[in-house]
Amino acid sequence: MYRPLVWLAVTLCLCCVGYMIIGARGPMSFVIPFRGAKIVALILVGVSISTSTVLFQTVSQNRILTPSIMGFDALYVMILTGAVFFLGGMTVAAVSAHLAFAVTACAMTLAALLLFSTLLRSAHNNLMRMILTGIVLGALFRSITDFMQRLIDPNEFAVIQAGSFARFTQIETDLLLLASVVCTIAMVLAWRMRFALDVLTLGREAAVNLGLDLQRVQMQALILTAVLVAVSTALVGPVAFLGLLVVSLARLVTPVESHGVIFISAGLISTITLIGGQTFLERVLQLSTPLSVVIDLLGGALFLILLLNGQRR
Amino acid sequence: MISIRNLSYQIAGSPILTDISLDLPKRKISALIGPNGAGKSTLLSLVARLEKLQSGTITVGDLTVGACSNRELAKHLSILPQMPDHVTRLTVKELVSFGRYPYHQGRPTDEDDAAVGHALALFGLTDLAQRSVDELSGGQRQRAQIAMTFAQDTEYMLLDEPLNNLDVAGARSLMALLRELSDIHGKTIVIVLHDINYASRYADWLVAMQKGQIVVEGTPAEMVTPALLRDVFQTDADIYHIDGVPFVMV
User: Which pLDDT belongs to residue B85?
Assistant: First the structure.
């Protein structure tokens, strides 16, 4: 077993135990299911974000872009808001949360495929064009969402409020079961692609030379990315820079070019960041700063550093 | 044999290749030469299915490019790829191991490991096997990449301007290596070259291209003449023969 992975796993266990027991008052029969559900949700979010980021970085052949920088999660929120805007909040609220999630996730996956597969084909070796397009798309989705949210009734806004900004304290736990199933399936599929993804890191030409069906692998990876982003956005809302932060850290901690290892280490680091960070902020600092602010501050700084370093090279 | 029939290719309406029909001989080194923009690299990428065929057919041995599966073709034909810069943390051995991917799809057998070991030994990379690729010099890196395509164990090998970043020593040893691959291992090699002298010295068969068409093909001795330089390359230069090999006085 690869040693850093063991240390990460141990750290994660400590974080989980800390999250469960620190400051626990009241009967354990209440605390365990209550906090347990949150931990499961944080784990799902953590691995969804890290895996989707690794997938997207490999497909887009760079180490800077992440699905959220490219506006995947903004797309999810836009579609959800669009549904409330056009169908009415009561219609959306009346259908079960599961159905709403399923429909939104499917619509988002389709839209993401249309948008990003063309982008990958036309700008695959032009990082600056990809970044620009991503930032413009993200801004576009967010403005459209904003515009629609301003027009709808405040009562209806409550339906989508949950998905509009990142929060780790109130998690949509009613989606937990469906999210875990979807997430598990996506993880298994991503895991089975790991060797093909290793080949893809050698570059398009080398991948074709080695007999990879480039189109198919890219499509699969994009679909999985979109589905995983949908899972994490549905649970905790858009988290801008977590993916970039944890995957870059994973590449430092486990400096090997193997997707098998990177998937695991990025997933572990991601869940450690969420659960450990949440334990610290929620229990030790008594919620004075939201975790998403800290993550975005660190991740945003890292994004700038990577971008400026890349420019100089 | 690589057979190309009635191949045409255009990008955004402007023709890059026009009605090319060409047979490239087996177990020989064929060099595509010609001025910049003649379509040599495009022709090579089409054979290697890096670009999609628009019209015409290409067959490599029994396989038809575009009709047979990518994976099947990868066991018969390899191209020395252009690699992105960030593939830095792979060791030489890991890089060479990728050459076996068409066979094992990620789960190498003993046979695959043996093939990798053989490729490393043949290319003098055994000592460097555990070094990471970004620590290598340009020539060593090129060698490692060719070792990878050798480990792929294909009958046909394509190389697009492999001498570009090499100094004289690197270029000569690479060409000598290709000669060995063709003479001893029976590989059919197609190479795009800028330098006619390297083509003349090391290739068996030259194909001269100009403006997307094949102008003339033949052995170096009959091909490299003042007329070729004048008509194809638009330059006047003297040709000298040394040991029967024609050289351009540059």
Answer: 62
Closest-CA residue in chain A for B152?
A: A210
**B135 at interface of A, judged by CB pairs closer than 8 A:** no
CATH code: domain of residue B183? 3.40.50.300
Smallest Cα distance from A197 to chain B, Å: 10
Q: Which of A77-86, A95-104, A174-183 has the lowest mean pLDDT?
A: A95-104
DSSP state of A284: I
Residue B95 and residue B191 in one domain: no
User: d(Cα A100, Cα A102) in Å, to the nearest integer?
Assistant: 6
The nearest CA of chain B is from the CA of A173 a distance in Å of: 38
Contact B82/A203, CB-based, under 8 Å? yes
Between the two ends of chain A, the Cα-to-Cα distance in Å is: 35
Interface of A with B (CB under 8 A): 61-63, 194-196, 198-199, 201-206, 208-213, 255-257
CA–CA dist A293, A298 (Å, integer): 9
Cβ-based neighbour number of residue B22 at 10 Å: 18
The string of pLDDT tens digits covering residues B32-53 is 999 988 999 999 999 999 988 9
- State whether residue B100 sits within 8 Å of chain A by CB: no
Q: Do B214 and B90 have their domain in common?
A: no
Does residue B204 sit within a domain? yes
For chain B, the first-to-last Cα distance in angstroms comes to 34
Query: Residue B248 domain-assigned?
Result: no
Q: How many CB pairs lie under 8 A apart between chains A and B?
A: 71
Kindly state whether B83 is in contact with chain A, defined as any CB-CB distance less than 8 angstroms.
Answer: yes
Whether residues B81 and A202 touch (CB distance < 8 A) is answered with: yes
Split at pLDDT 50, 70, 90, the class of A312 is very low
Same domain, B128 and B215: no
- B73 min Cα distance to partner chain A (Å): 7
| Partner A contacted by B50 (CB < 8 A) | yes
Total count of domains within chain B: 2
Mean pLDDT (whole number) for B118-133? 91
pLDDT tier at A290 (50, 70, 90 boundaries)?
confident
Same domain, B91 and B132: yes
Beta-carbon neighbour count of residue B179 at 10 Å? 16
Chain A residues touching residue B86 (CB < 8 angstroms): 62-63
Domain A49-312: assigned CATH number: 1.10.3470.10
Give residue-wise pLDDT tens across range B188-246.
999 999 899 999 999 999 999 999 999 999 999 999 999 999 999 999 889 999 988 99
- Domain shared by B71 and B159, yes or no: yes
Show residues of chain B in contact with A195, CB under 8 Å: 101, 105-107
Whether B107 and B166 map to the same domain: the answer is: no
The b-or-e profile of A68-99 (16+ CB within 10 A means b, else e) is bbbbbbbbbbbbbbbbbbeeebeebbeeeeee
Query: Who among B69, B81, B90 is closest to A209 (CB)?
Result: B81
Cα distance between residue A143 and residue A162, in whole Å: 18
Give the domain range for residue B4: 1-76+155-220
**Would B240 be classed as within a structural domain?**
no
